[in-house]
Write the structure tokens for this entry.
Amino acid sequence: MTWLIWRQHRAEALALVVLIAAIGAALVIVGQPMHDLFPNGASRCVPPTTDRACIVGLATLQQSYDFAAPMLALLNFVPLAIGAFLGAPLLARELELGTWQLAWTQAVPRMRWLAAKLVALAGLTVALGAAFTGAVAWFRQPLDLFGRFDITGFDLSGIVPMAYGLFAFAIAALAGALLRRSLPAYATAIVVFVTVRIAVATWLRPQFRAPITLTQEIPPGSRELRLAAKPLDWNLGEGFADASGKHFSELSSTIWEHKATDAGIDPATYLHEHGILRWITYHPADRLAGFQLIESTLYVGLAALLLALLVWRVKRRAL
Amino acid sequence: MTGNEQALATEGLGKRYGKKWALRGCTLALPAGKVIALVGPNGAGKTTLLRMAVGLVAPTVGTVEVFGQSPTENSPQALSRVGFLAQDHPLYRHFTVADLLRFGRSCNVRFDEGLALKRLSQLDIPLNRRAGALSGGQQAQVALALALAKRPDLLVLDEPLASLDPLARLEFQQTLMGAVAADGVTVLFSSHVVHELKQVCDHLVVLNHGHVAVQGDIDDLLGQHRLLTGPRVETGPRKSGSVIEANHADRHSTLLVRDGRTALLPGWQEQPVALEELVLAYLRRGIDQEATV
């Protein structure tokens, strides 16, 4: 079986290894100058810092490497590519060409055949995901100084990409079994994966735990009218509220801000006199690891569910 | 293998896809050591029956046994005893012939690679060629060599000749018959071509609309059936169970009957029936009549 799995899937496996290696090389080439900004290591420059070299490094990073995070965000397709590329052909190719009848009439019972394939290919998905997330983790070391709740810091770091990969693998494998053809299986995997990813990232993820909301009076004479999140926190929104604590819309908040600056007196004092409060809603930085664990568990759970469906379908021989 | 052993036995076997029954109420007892043809039009349920016999498809109702073991359980032992050649002889097209042999070796407990190599070299099929680059006839031969290398007790072939040109067809038949003679393997193959059956097989199952229309040893079937010609009578398959088919002309009637050897009425003549006519007569009968047999 081991030889058969390797022989059948080596083309995809090698293509993915080349892809990950190329991405890794590109990340090293682009990322090395960023690392050079912090000769003592980026981890020693976590803001707020008073270290002179760190402040210079952070400023240069912000000015000259503002492309790095958006560039990295493009790599969000990688876990999908790994999973779908390994998952879709698993059954679709056998069904497409009729070779399932060849494979399942040898002396290997089909449940053992399926189990061996799932373990090998899901394992490869995780291994490739680990290599990818390792490269990204190194590349992001300087960028982590700006916080890790963004689309690359959260979605491409730690165990999360491996969970995404497994999820993509499971959708593609199940779609392949249902649609009996590889190409529609890839297409289905892309649509479902992107939909679920966006839904979870924008809607579900902020609710993994109740966010913290801070509401306070604006101290007269304060230079900052609004509250700012601490550098590594996940800022979900901020603005003004009326005396009862009811949040204004962003538009109303902006209007109040303009009124205050145009009032001719100290803006903070003006807002204070009008009973305006300021608020901020955020997740503190130390929730990151927990959130990543919740997100990974969610995707691994979904993958397990889809693979259970696949096994059930093959077992009852409805193919 | 004893002479009376049954290679394949089914009891009330049926398979439903959605609301449509592909096969229904199929009860068969196929003897070991014979070459058995499964004949029927397209959509008669042949492929479904064969897939259930090799464990690819699970029955909706009824039981199926191959040499006393249920293929549905999918155990390595049961799988080892059966060789299967699916319709259009599917192979991994990007595998070389050598790869395919290695596939056979790695997925089987017993796999007679020497036998396969011998067959392939006799046919001048190069081992380093990709399966997809071989001709249709060669692909069928490779698939057959793989199935035979399992040294199966029962070899099941689904429409093995359908996609082959006449020359490849002949070569394929020769290889197959050679294997039967050498190993005594029981062969069950499906076909919708009725002629030429008599030369290759000795047992016949006719399947129509998902039901078994008739089955038996070909010699027995030919002995039991005869064509009677005589003055026009108002009888037909609906009136008499022994009349399989009736053709009425102005003055006389021709009846295909299955009645053993009863004496003839005056004015009637009998003649033997050809296998092809016999099969066609059963295929022309409606489902309602089959139920009464």
User: Anything to note?
Assistant: The first helix of chain A runs from residue 2 to 36. The first strand of chain A starts at residue 212 and ends at 217. The interface with chain B takes residues 1-4, 7-8, 97-111, 316-317 of chain A (CB under 8 Å). The mean pLDDT of chain A is 94.
